[in-house]
Amino acid sequence: MRILCAGDAFMKPEFFVAALREELGEGHEYITNSSGWPDVPYCESDEIQEWVGDEKQLIHLMPGVQILVTHVAPVTAALLQAAPDLRMISCSRGGPVNINLQAATECGISVAFVPGRNAQAVAEYTIGLIIAGQRHIVESDAALRQNATWSGHLYAYDQAGTELIGHTLGLFGMGQIGVRVARLLRNFSMCIITYDPYIDSVEAREVGVEKMHDFKRFLAEADILSLHMRLTPETRGIVNRETLSMMKRGAYLVNTARGKLIKTDDLVEALATGQLSGAALDVFEHEPLTADNPLLRFPQVIVTSHLAGSSREVAHRTARWTAEEVGRFVRGESLRACANPAVIKPC
């Protein structure tokens, strides 16, 4: 069986090959390709999203390939048309947005993906941002490094940070990441609430979270609002002037989900007026950030370069899970997560 492993500097092709050999045994041919991600930022098109790679180069490699294992490679209709032997794509992401799913389905190609692969990493990172923001850790560090300024004023009562205990965390969306955040924060004695129409109250209570049914009340009660939802037409721009105005004055916003959930101009306005006391953002409406981005004017805003899902454990776990999906497909077993289950045809 001929397998193409299209990786990058995070999901290295050799990780895929090693995991596939362990899963499938010897006797298969492996071709590798690597893109410039994450140094090269994501591309967007009308056909697919969040992709990086040389489509023409990949098309050249496709003849005879039966299995494609990829992370962020552009899997377009043109590429699929150039791959008459392709039977399955195993995408090492929580959502195969870089794959033309309609074209794959029309070609009878099964598309597997790996939800939850980086849930623990993102949850831990989210908590790190919350603590750093509430206690001025980044602000003080920057002052010392850049200007050798001892930030004694941050110890003064009017500027001092707040503890997490006794405060209310609002989880806007409660999938695998939100659940992990809730579990990890149990020992901080926070009140944790969620707004998520896709979970029930019993599920929320099992991890110590109260499900809110009133959206306005949910926003009004949260001292810290953390976003944990997918980007869909419904959620795009959901954090905007209207929703920000419903939040408690002086609340804090954390986003480790998707940048386009927030309308940047409205967030800047909320920060400038004091409606929000600050924000911690790992993702942005437009990436990468440019030097003139207005968010960089606010010392109370923590900005990081889309790192929440990155850990060494994530890379190896993802390679293993991706290979396991290939193994299931080859053996004719049900896939753990298939984006188009109607077309499953084992090799």
TrEMBL record:
Domain D-isomer specific 2-hydroxyacid dehydrogenase NAD-binding: 127-308
One Pfam family named in its UniProt record: 2-Hacid_dh_C
NAD in keyword set: yes
Domain called D-isomer specific 2-hydroxyacid dehydrogenase catalytic: residue spans: 53-340
InterPro entries reported in the protein's UniProt record: D-2-hydroxyacid_DH, D-isomer_2_OHA_DH_cat_dom, D-isomer_DH_NAD-bd, NAD(P)-bd_dom_sf
Signal sequence, start to end: none
SUPFAM superfamilies xrefs: Formate/glycerate dehydrogenase catalytic domain-like, NAD(P)-binding Rossmann-fold domains
Keywords linked to the UniProt accession: NAD, Oxidoreductase
Entry's Gene Ontology molecular function annotations: NAD binding; oxidoreductase activity, acting on the CH-OH group of donors, NAD or NADP as acceptor
Family, per entry: Belongs to the D-isomer specific 2-hydroxyacid dehydrogenase family.
The protein's name in its UniProt record: Oxidoreductase
Source organism of the structure: Dictyobacter arantiisoli
